[in-house]
Structure formats: C-alpha cells, structure tokens
Amino acid sequence: MATSNIVVLTTGLSGSSVVTGFIAQKDYWLGDKTIFKSNASGRYETYENEKLVELNNELLATLNVELTESSWYDIDLFERIRKSHNEVNTKKFVEFINYCQQHGKWIWKDPRLWVTMGFWGELLRGCDIKYIIVSRQPISLWVSLISKRQIVSYSKLRVSERNSHDRIVRYLNDCGFPNITMNYDKLVEHPQTEIKKLNHFLNSNYTLKMFSDLYKGKVGGKTFSNKNFFKAVLIYIKNYNLK
Question: What is the DSSP secondary-structure string of 136-175?
C-alpha cells in the first residue's frame, strides 16, 4: 500500500487540482488549511496547503522574484532559486517540513513549486517522497489559458511547456528523486490506463470509481469542447489584433 509522501508539480491550469484531490483520497494530509479559488464554474478546492503557498511567496519575495508568464519557464531563474540557500534563512522552511512529517503521509501541490522546487529539494532529501509531474496536451492548455484571458501563442506555449517539463524531469532524475508524468487529458479520456500507471508507481489501488466520484466533467470525454476551442481562437485573434 502507498506510504510515500507526494509532491505534485505543475505549471498551473493543468488539471493538478483534480489529480491531487484524486490521490489525496487515500488519507494524505493536505495541511491545516487549504486554499479555495473561484472561476466561471464556481468555487473549487485547489488542495494547496496554505502554509506551503505562504512560504513559497515569502521565498520569492525575499529573492525579489516576480512570477510572470515567461518566468514560469525560465531555467536561469530556476537555477538561481535552487542555489539561494545562502540568501535565505531556511529555518522556517525546515520547521514546516518537520511539521508535515508529524502528520503521517502528506501531499503538496502548489504551482510555485515549478520554479522553487530546486530550493525545496535539498531540504526534503531526508523524506520519503515520490514526485508526480502533471502535464496537459498543449492545445488543451492553450484553450484553458485563452479562456481565462491569458493571451499566449500556441506555438510558444507548446515549446515552453516541453522544454520546461524536460528541465524539471532532468532536475528530479539528477537528484535521484523518483518521478512520473501524468497527463491530465489522458486521465480524463482514458482513466483506466493512467490510473494503472499511477497505481504501479505508488504501489496503490486507486479505482475508476474513485476518479468518477471526484471528477465533475464527463469521464471518457475531452477536457474541452469544440465550442470552447473556437471561442478561444476568436479571443486570441481579437487580442492579437489589439497588439
């Protein structure tokens, strides 16, 4: 049965809340308080430990880092934060890790980890952790971003996501951290295949029913409709012409 702690890594808007919520059903500790957000479909649980988010924000502020569309994918920024232990007092970060360890198996998810993981990695070396990278098909992610009025070209997004994903995998492998990539679109469209892969990685027994009970959309369908795709195209064209 699964016993390792879990860190979920994502660039954001990649279905990581669904994946984290799905995994957390096996009694993973999420934190004293988690963050809720709102979008067009209503208020939803992010499964993000509020204290983890607070510490990530504090880390970035201490280093005078402002996250932007491009900084999510900046390898130089990732390396700078990874090597910043001499610029940051790590005491409260270590105390937070120890606090999590006191709660049995835990799970972390915060998109900021995509750029701060290098900093946390050294502090987490004594913990039993498996890392899950949540990705999404580029076209699916593009539709989601454009629908939220985050205007980016599809070609640029596709290349940035691929290079950034390869970078985080390379970092985890270099550190000897066990990791797997889960594709959100495949999980929704072909859940049994992805769940089987997850169970093999975690030595767990998640089921299709557990996923169906959690997922609010149509299991076995696409994560976006043709209508949403064409709407995204129109939004992009309109905003492109305004540049």
Answer: --HHHHHHHHHHTT----HHHHHHHHHHHHHHHHHHHHHH
Output the pTM of the full model: 0.92
Q: What is the pLDDT of residues 110-126, one digit of tens each?
A: 999 999 999 999 999 98
Contact partners, residue 139, CB within 8 Å, separation at least 6 = 154, 229
Torsional class of 179: left (φ above 0), alpha (ψ -120 to 50), beta (otherwise): beta
Residue 21: CA count within 13 A, CB half-sphere: 19
Question: Inter-axis angle of helices 75-82 and 113-123, to 10 degrees?
Answer: 30
Distance CA(90)–CA(41), nearest Å, equals 39
Tokens of 148: 């939220």
pLDDT tens, residue by residue, 62-96: 999 999 888 889 999 999 999 999 999 999 999 99
CB–CB of 107/20 below 8 Å?
yes
CA dihedral for 6, 108, 110, 125, sign (positive or negative): negative
Helix axes 91-101, 113-123, angle to 10 degrees: 80
For the stretch 133-172, pLDDT in tens is: 999 998 988 898 888 888 889 999 999 999 999 999 999 9
